[in-house]
Structure to design on (345 residues):
């Protein structure tokens, strides 16, 4: 596997639609997250990681690129929804360039799986091999690396008709969009203006603590240890600690600290459940989940919206507060998504 800060040779891939695309094209506007699916067929951990990354990568000015050696149901699904670019590496050129080809004696080489962040200069800034199966790097770790790559944005050609939006600008737009949705959902729960503002403020800082996760963990080659996972799961506590100690922010800190707790107690960092989880944290959890599933689709792909709402409904009462999920549906409907929500019912 190439070390960090090494420049990759360019290569050419074929998209699921049959078009040819080069590495230079993929990173022209900023970092690309290359997820190589070697032996990851039917890996639910990988699929969940990819869905989480779909909208988040876009928000931080990066392109999520799923690379497979052949047909890939999850790659096709993400490409259809607009959450990723699905490409096929039929000659295993990318796997070879990233040293993810392990030769077997008397047999064809085995293609390993991994995640790589490549900046606009084709320099590898994160390298992770998913071995053994089910040990995929968390989406939050990849996003933490993308945030630190905000300065890597390639110039846009004058011939390019698309608007030149920097990663920072795109991230700012995503944060504002999320905050507005949080306000809409909280308002539909009958909360007063002060409470709505408190939850919206918490939404800006919920993942601030990911900045405290060492690069050695973010860039680790191989499975994370239990201790390293624990450190990542502590980031909500670190986020709360990084906020001002002013008593005016007591409520915000409480929401931030519980923003990854699940209704059934399976979340982190404290394993809170039910009413012990602040209502504001329950709002953030639902909105964050919805944005992660649909952000790259910018509400235009009705199938993506329907699938996201279906998934939230399916886990309402287990992971998510059913009342908050209902408020989200109402908020999306009021934004012009009524027809898609009706189709999803």
């Amino acid at each position: 596997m190439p070390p960090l800060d090494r420049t990759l040779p360019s290569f050419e891939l074929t998209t699921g639609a049959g078009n040819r695309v080069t590495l230079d094209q993929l990173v022209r506007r900023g970092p690309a997250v290359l997820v190589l699916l070697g032996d990851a067929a039917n890996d639910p951990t990988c699929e969940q990681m990819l869905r989480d990354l779909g909208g988040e990568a876009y928000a931080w000015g990066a392109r999520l690129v799923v690379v497979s050696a052949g047909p890939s149901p999850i790659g096709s699904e993400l490409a259809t929804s607009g959450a990723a670019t699905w490409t096929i590496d039929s000659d295993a050129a990318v796997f070879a360039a990233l040293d993810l080809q392990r030769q077997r004696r008397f047999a064809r080489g085995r293609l390993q799986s991994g995640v790589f962040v490549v900046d606009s200069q084709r320099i590898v800034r994160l390298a992770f091999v998913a071995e053994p199966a089910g040990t995929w790097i968390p989406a939050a770790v990849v996003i933490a690396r993308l945030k630190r790559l905000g300065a890597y944005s390639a110039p846009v050609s004058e011939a390019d008709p698309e608007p030149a939006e920097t990663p920072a600008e795109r991230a700012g737009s995503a944060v504002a969009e999320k905050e507005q949705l949080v306000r809409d959902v909280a308002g539909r729960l009958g909360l007063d203006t002060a409470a709505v503002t408190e939850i919206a403020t918490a939404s800006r800082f919920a993942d601030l603590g990911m900045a405290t996760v060492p690069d050695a963990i973010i860039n680790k080659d191989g499975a994370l240890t239990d201790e390293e996972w624990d450190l990542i799961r502590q980031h909500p506590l670190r986020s709360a600690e990084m906020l001002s100690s002013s008593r005016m922010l007591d409520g915000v800190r409480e929401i931030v600290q519980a923003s990854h707790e699940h209704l059934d107690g399976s979340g982190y960092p404290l394993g809170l459940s039910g009413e012990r989880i602040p209502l504001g944290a329950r709002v953030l959890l639902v909105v964050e989940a919805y944005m992660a599933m649909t952000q790259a689709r910018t509400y235009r792909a009705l199938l993506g919206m329907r699938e996201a709402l279906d998934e939230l409904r399916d886990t309402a009462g287990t992971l998510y507060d059913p009342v908050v999920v209902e408020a989200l549906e109402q908020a999306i409907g009021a934004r012009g998504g009524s027809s898609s929500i009706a189709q999803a019912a």
In short: Residues 322-344 form the longest helix (23 residues).
